[in-house]
Amino acid sequence: MQDSNKLLEQANRQLASSPNTPTAAGPTNSEPLPDRDAVIDALNQMFAEFELVYHNQYNKAFSNAEKLSYAKKIWFSNLRHISPERIIAATHRAIRESEFLPTVKGILKYCEPDLRELGLPDSHSAYLEACRAPQPKAEYSWSHPAVYHAGRACDWFFLAGNTEHAAYPVFKRHYEDICQRVINGETLSLPAQIALPETISKPLSPDEQRQRMQQLRDELDI
């Protein structure tokens, strides 16, 4: 049986020279694709690290050069639109968080930005912030607008009137849905605060009311 380096070398040559590599999955809009060779290098590093970390699972999944080559083509077709830096970051994240050899779907998930990268607190911290924020909620200095929108989606009275055991799962579901929208590129905003008037009017006195009425009569000639 060929050693691991020879298998990788053979698969790399086939991948780089293949003219019929499928188009990357997912919309790419008008953005240019990352450099092909850089993506292939990132995938090679990913496979090499997976072999070291998930040794037995890796050898079972890619038991010969043909399987390895075909797997690399599939992974390339689905990760072609992702930057090499993001692929490597996803690889390291998968190694930290997954006990099992990741699938393509798993790596695509790991390629999504981490909540911390987007300034989003974890769901429990967000829940506590939503519960503790004073009224008026729209004027509070939120760590991220997603926390406000999740709290509003739950209903502030619901959060205030229920225990954490009952309220947190509901908040968490709304918050994760809103976080996914942020990950997908949506920009959230807080309600616009109504500015206080520069001057506050006061009721007219009876004499002032009579003078104002007489002024209107004079202007209308009645």
From TrEMBL:
Polar residues composition-biased segments: 1-31
Species: Zhongshania guokunii
Pfam families assigned: Phage_lambda_P
Stated name of the protein: Replication protein P
Biased amino acid composition, Basic and acidic residues: 205-222
Region (Disordered): 1-35, 200-222
Lineage, top ranks: Bacteria, Pseudomonadati, Pseudomonadota, Gammaproteobacteria, Cellvibrionales
